[in-house]
Automatic annotation (TrEMBL):
Subcellular location: Cell outer membrane
Membrane topology: Lipid-anchor
Name the UniProt record assigns to this protein: Peptidoglycan-associated lipoprotein
Any single Pfam family the record assigns to this protein: OmpA
Organism field: Yanghanlia caeni
Region of interest called Disordered, as start-end residue ranges on this chain: 29-50
Function: Part of the Tol-Pal system, which plays a role in outer membrane invagination during cell division and is important for maintaining outer membrane integrity.
Entries under Gene3D superfamilies matching the protein: OmpA-like domain
Assembly information from the UniProt record: The Tol-Pal system is composed of five core proteins: the inner membrane proteins TolA, TolQ and TolR, the periplasmic protein TolB and the outer membrane protein Pal. They form a network linking the inner and outer membranes and the peptidoglycan layer.
């Protein structure tokens, strides 16, 4: 019984010592940002800085014939929403895209639904609707020019574009 208590106390002491040695600075000034959950990431959060996640991660990709935001891209939308909530003067344009399959009118409508899905999620996360414009390019601005499934997947997206 006493060895169990001794082990528990040792574990608690080691945990406390490791927590005290944390390398996270207490003063988050200037360029540090916050993650989707509000915790400090220590990263530059500037959509115009190529080193920033806001500049590097701007596309939400969709399944074929879908405008539902996949779970794996929700944290990306949350990251951009957190930035926009803290920078109310900043404006974004959400550009919806579709792959080459289907007619022009259908793809324009699908791209619009994709851009509006991202815009709607940002609104639900507290971004002012006046900061967001949702538009569609349909299949007119492909990122990948081939005809493979990988090319099509690259073109089924909504891009978050910051306005200067």
């Amino acid at each position: 019984m006493s060895s169990r208590i001794a082990r528990s106390l040792t574990l608690a002491a080691v945990t406390a010592a490791l927590a005290a040695c944390s390398s996270v600075p207490l003063d988050q000034t200037g360029t540090a940002g916050t993650g989707a959950d509000g915790a400090s990431t220590g990263q530059i959060m500037d959509p115009f800085n190529p080193q920033s996640p806001l500049a590097q991660q701007r596309s939400v990709y969709f399944e074929f014939d879908s405008y539902t935001i996949p779970e794996q891209y929700r944290s990306l939308v949350e990251m951009h929403s957190n930035y926009l909530r803290g920078n109310t003067q900043q404006r974004v344009r959400i550009e919806g895209h579709a792959d080459a399959r289907g007619g022009s009118e259908y793809n324009l409508a699908l791209g619009q639904r994709r851009s509006e899905a991202v815009s709607r999620m940002m609104g639900l996360l507290g971004v002012n609707a006046g900061q967001i414009e949702a538009i569609s390019f349909g299949k007119e601005r492909p990122r990948a020019l081939g005809n493979t499934e990988a090319d099509y997947a690259e073109n089924r997206r909504a891009d978050i574009v910051y306005q200067q």
